[in-house]
Amino acid sequence: MTIVGSSLCEDDLKRYYCVSGRNEQDSALVTMQLLLENFCHFLCANNGIGRIIYESRELLENERLRDRYYHMKLMGSMYMDKNTAEKRLLGIDFIDKDENCAGLQIADFVPLGFARDHAGMNQGNPNIFSTLKFHRYDGNQNMRDRFGIKYMP
């Protein structure tokens, strides 16, 4: 398994980049940008195409995430041009927890360890965090902190 993801501290994002009433940050867009850039990198390196799967939330939350996804796909980003996004990203789907999707069940246990690590918290016992850290995507450059799980202040 290869792990790609992102983690963001909303308090730090607001402290560093927010100018009240003038520059409000969208943390979901920032984390999705990090995720999609590294996922596209992975897809390009492996000559692949892929689809983003989220566990369904409330309808409005799903639509907000879908809007952010298509914003990134249509505009590109700092590290992902729109042509690459168009070629490599097939879409975004939302699956209900009731569907008992094996992929979502596996994905349920992965983020917690990274979130705890990013927050400076101890890992629970038992845990498989050291194994998960090893399986982060390294960008074929041995850079798991950059391409695997990207922590943003």
Q: Tell me about the biggest sheet?
A: 2 strands, parallel
Number of helices: 7
- Domain count: the total is 1
> Order of strands across the biggest sheet?
1-4
**Rough outline:** globular
% residues in beta strands = 5-15%
What oligomerization state is this entry in? single chain
- Class inferred from helices and paired strands: alpha/beta
Q: What is the distance, rounded to the nearest whole angstrom, between the alpha carbons of the first and last residues?
A: 26 Å
| E-strand count | 4
Average pLDDT score:
91
Rg over CA atoms, rounded to whole Å, is 16 Å
Uncertain segments of ≥5 residues (pLDDT<50)? Answer: none
> What is the string of helix and strand elements?
EHHEHHEHHHE
Q: Residue share in helices?
A: 40-55%
Explain this structure.
With 153 residues, the chain is α/β, with parallel strands linked by helices. The chain contains seven helices and four strands. Helix 2 packs across helix 3. The two termini are 26 Å apart. The mean pLDDT is 91.
List the helices and strands and how they pair.
Elements: E1 5-8, H1 10-17, H2 27-45, E2 50-55, H3 59-75, H4 82-88, E3 89-95, H5 102-118, H6 129-134, H7 144-147, E4 149-152
Parallel strand pairs: 1-4, 2-3
Helix pairs in contact: 2-3
Task: Tag the structure with descriptive keywords.
single chain; 153 residues; alpha/beta; two-stranded parallel sheet; 4 strands; 51% helix; globular
Summarize the structure.
The protein has 153 residues and is of the alpha/beta class. The protein is built from seven helices and four strands; from the N terminus they run E-H-H-E-H-H-E-H-H-H-E.
